[in-house]
Design a protein that fits this description.
30% of the residues lie in helices and 16% in strands. It has helices at 54-62, 95-101, 138-149, 161-166, 170-176, 201-208, 233-255, 268-273, 279-286, 326-338, 353-356, 360-371, 376-385, 396-400, 403-407, 452-455; strands at 2-6, 44-49, 66-71, 84-86, 92-94, 105-108, 153-157, 181-186, 261-267, 291-293, 296-299, 308-310, 316-319, 390-392, 411-417, 420-425. The chain is α/β, with parallel strands linked by helices. It has 16 helices and 16 strands.
Amino acid sequence: MTATTSPRPRPGGPGGPGGEAGSAGSAGSAAQSRTDTSPLTGVRVLEIDDGFAGYAGKVFADFGASVVKVERPGGALQRRSGPFYRAADGNEYSLPFAYYNAGKQSVLLDLPDAGRPDADRPDADRPDADRPDAEVDADAIAQLERLIAGADVVLDGMSGGITATLGLSSERLAELRPGLIHVVITPFGLTGPWRDYLSSDLVALTLGGVTAQTGYDSVNGRPGQPISPTGGQSSHFVGVLAAIATIAALRERRDRRAEDVLTLDFSVHDSVAVSTESYVSMWEFGNLEGFRHTGRHASGIFTNPAWQFRCGDGAYVCALTLYLNDRRFAALLDLFDKAGFSHGLADERYATQRQRDPIMNEIVNEIARFCKQHSADYIFDEAQRRQLPWAKVRSPEDIAADAHLAARGFFTPVELFPGEQVPFPGMPWQGLPSALLATDANAHVPQLGQDTEALLNQEGWRAL
């Protein structure tokens, strides 16, 4: 990430059609769906997205900011991404769009796209022909400027940023909204030799190093085939990092009453490159080439002992044999003995970790034999009672029925669709209020352009 600032124009410059905007983090009234206890109540975020900024917008919405999503005619591409859910109102809703956009508002503006192929979008890994550049609609730009004038933060996920795509310079943004934080999220950043290259989730994970350490065991003396994870993870990486930095900037700028425009330049590629666990450090500090391993961390060892074991009920457990120190080894023997499992691991050859490491495959073979005799749930529970870091390999269905998550209230009924409550995955924290799950929250999935008229009236965001 890089940051640049543009000074506020001298008095007399245009103030924007919406009038003077409130200060970032001010205590003024927020959108009707936000509770006063949420930490970002009063912060106004404008999300202009080609697919890279949506998760950052979700984080802001979850923390109570008023997030307005700008959509083009036809709606965001993600609205057409499956799987789909037919709600009680008879409409079909994209579940990915619902998850990332619940609680946001939607404004329809006839803005041009970035003139890039769909492959440039994180949720569309497919080749497509370039779309022709569209004429810039002056009325649409004026409407966008009205929204910018009322925003504290602009989340700009257009492929080249609104400066390049729509001609809104940093100077113009400073005229419209002194103190604005302009968060630009692009595939490779605004500078560097790759700044105009195309990307997607697959491309980002591949170039950033994640794919190289994900895959199956090396076989026949050759590294296994690399595999990319799915689920738009690259947009999650950059979204979380962008949200953290922007929230910090909001605090810092509020404290010193900043009036310049701060531009934060986020690269998806940069964000993925710092999210590769140990792969980069292995090479940088150990000059080790990483090898992929099925269901295990990549490592500098071509082959290493298995961690995944099939159980008697057909399910799998991850029985971590890494760091099998003396305490954990004693716990493993206790597990075997209490279950009446016959083994030969009490021999002096296994007395210390130094002795065990060269013959770890012998221990792994005993674990595999034990797992075949018991269910995955039994092994998970008994191992954890002994503080062995083992786990059952869970399916999505298992997680949906997870008693531990239920006990923590993770799945919360939310009126996600009009007149219909559905169990919604909760926030990964407790103790800090969530605007989306507040009792007075309106967490509906926004209909395309439903808030256009209200937000573009004479008062603009001041009416919220």
